[in-house]
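Journal club prep, notes for RB
We'll compare a predicted complex against what the paper describes. Inputs for the pyridoxal-5'-phosphate case:
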Amino acid sequence: MVQGAQAGTRLIRLGWPDVGPEELAAVAEVLESGFLTMGPKVDEFELGIAAACGIADAVAVSSGTAALHLAVLALGIGEGDEVIVPAYTFPATANVVVLSGATPVLVDVDPQTMNLDPSAVYDAVTERTRAVIAVHLFGRPLDWEALQSAVPPDVALIEDAAGALGARWRGMPCGGLGVMGCLSFHPRKVVTTGEGGAVTTSDPELAAALRRLRHHGIDVHAGADIVRPSTNYRLSDLQCAIGITQLARLDELLRERRRVAEAYSERLAGVVTTPEADEGDDHGWQAYVVQVDRRDDVLAGLRGQGIEAQIGTYALQRLSAYRDQGRFPSADVCFERALALPLHSRLGDAEIDRIAAALDKEVSTH
Ligand SMILES: Cc1ncc(COP(=O)(O)O)c(C=O)c1O
């Protein structure tokens, strides 16, 4: 075990993927099977993801970023088109729009929920708007109805549910609300395959387009012709086997995250601004992100005490690539105040007490 910055304190890791003997056995089975990629585990994993999102189909791909990129491409979005994205998000949400040749239009977020502000979305719609990529940030469900009312019906709503597998908006699974839902299986996500992602959809034509686009543009059911060249975004059977095992444990994985989140909220109420979901929604707890003043000092203080905290995510207008798009005051506030605390199933009460006490101390010092 790595030691923390102060002698004698153990480093508390930000994340720790919950994988064990079942995932190991699943990988061993694939290694012995002779199908390392595009074999039966891909199909089985896709069925499991679709079921978890309450939707007809899912297409497994190599990352959450690949999922978002293919969702944009599958809609035929490109040069001259605009796609609305939150100003406060992981950069992949906007980068894939640029990679597709279209223009990402940054929109401010709500400073409390840290999700897209629907009234700002309404103001940003133009004749060129083809889609919104709506993020359920850190696993907190976005108010889907408010978003739907903010845009004309011909604007496609793509969910960036990278961190929202298992979250529910009014009882309905996130990742199954939009025309497509994009998931990530990075190790800091609820379900992991090491690296990995998926696009969900109930539209068979979009599903077929996504399957071609992840495989060079080839339709495996229609000969070897390529009409629209694409790239390789496939996910291997090895990774899907891990994913199948993880999905079978989804309730347990979510329960563990909820346990830690509830323990934090109990200890930190009144100390910092704690995260929550809207009434009637279930937070997926991909990350537990509080808001504090003087975040950088508090973050440095926690790290000095051997606690691996992290910033929330990025305010895109502060990055050189997106600097010319105007002011997004709430995204600025979120960027300056958000602080992610360690969140994984290995955290017991003693570690949570230590983190809460350290945060209390840092907040009262700065
Ligand atoms: C909101 C959001 N979108 C997209 C991604 C990209 O996912 P991946 O790392 O699997 O490419 C992430 C990753 O953290 C994310 O948080």
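Talking point for the session: The chain has two domains: 21-248, 250-365.
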